[in-house]
Amino acid sequence: MLLRASICAITDNACEVDLAESWLRENRAHLSYVSDMNGCGCCIFLWDIEGPSDVVKTIPAQLVSGGEWASSGTNPKG
Fold it and tell me: The domain containing residue 55 runs over which residues?
C-alpha cells in the first residue's frame, strides 16, 4: 500500500534539515514520488512524498507534518 506524507524541517530545530535530507537520500529509491523542496529554504524545508507504507512509516516523528498532502486528490504522476 502506498502512503502519502509531508516532511517538514524547521531550521530553528537543531539538525532537522540534515535529518530530513539524510532520510530522503537513504529512501529516495524506494519512494514513488518526492516533490521539489516546497519550503522557503530560509526557515522551513518541506517535501511531499509517496511510497510504500513500511518506508513512509520510518520518517522520524519530528519531521512528519501530515499523513496526506494538503493538496491531495491529484496524482503526482498525472
Answer: 2-66
